[in-house]
Specification:
The protein is mostly helical. It contains ten helices and two strands; from the N terminus they run αααββααααααα. Strand 1 and strand 2 form a beta hairpin.
């Protein structure tokens, strides 16, 4: 499958006539239109979500993003993500996250607004109720992106967008797309709460340590086929 389904999905969006914020057809209908399986469609949509083309809201559906997409620069970022994903393995992606995301968490403890922190808490709660690994991965991506956005550093946020796009493409290629979601004991749930607790207490050092512990835990679990990055 590789990028063929992704290309089909991009072409369909370009020719669909959808306006920004409009909901896409149900998965079953899109699968029939594109001639792909539901698992393949979900994996392609994860990449488009990471690129900011789509927005997925659990329980409501998938929408064409409302956010304006700059004509200049976006294609270059997209090409960068695609090229890096071809030469990046799961371990490399995690090492890059370990280098960047703890610092973002520390900055967010200082600069994050109450509204941004509330959004992170809502995402953490929604992850516990995710009906599938695909739904969980979308929420997890939004959670980490929300932390990066609240850091107050636009350059680090841009770097995180590229990193997140690369790591989601890697996830897309190995994601467990079964209907079941993470079990209640899944390690990331409590680790996300620990990050949030530190952020809400405005403890930068604790937030940095909690993010580092979370990513190291995820790295140690990468041998399990059912664990997304």
């Amino acid at each position: 499958m590789k990028d063929k389904v992704l290309i089909r999905m991009r072409n369909w969006i370009a020719e669909s006539g959808l306006v920004k914020g409009e909901r896409l057809p149900p998965e079953r209908a899109l699968c029939e239109t594109l001639g792909v399986s539901r698992a393949e469609l979900r994996k392609a949509n994860l990449v488009l979500e990471a690129e900011g083309v789509l927005e997925r809201h659990v329980g409501r559906g998938t929408f064409l993003s409302k956010a304006p997409r700059p004509v200049n620069g976006h294609d270059a970022i997209e090409r960068t993500i695609s090229a890096l994903a071809e030469s990046t393995g799961p371990v490399e992606a995690m090492q890059a996250r370990l280098a960047l995301e703890p610092e973002l968490a520390k900055l967010t403890a200082l600069h994050g607004t109450p509204m941004q922190l509330r959004k992170m808490r809502q995402l953490a709660s929604a992850m516990r109720a995710a009906p599938s690994w695909g739904a969980y991965e979308v929420l997890d991506s939004e959670f980490h992106e929300a932390i990066a956005a609240a850091s107050g550093n636009s350059l680090l946020l841009a770097l995180h967008k590229i990193l997140n796009g690369v790591r989601l493409t890697v996830v897309w290629r190995r994601l467990n797309t079964s209907d079941g979601g993470p079990e209640a004991s899944y390690h990331s749930f409590d680790e996300h709460d620990a990050i949030l607790n530190a952020l809400e207490q405005r403890d930068g050092a604790a937030a940095e340590a909690a993010m580092q512990a979370h990513l190291k835990s995820t790295l140690s679990m990468m041998g399990a086929a059912s664990s997304p990055l």
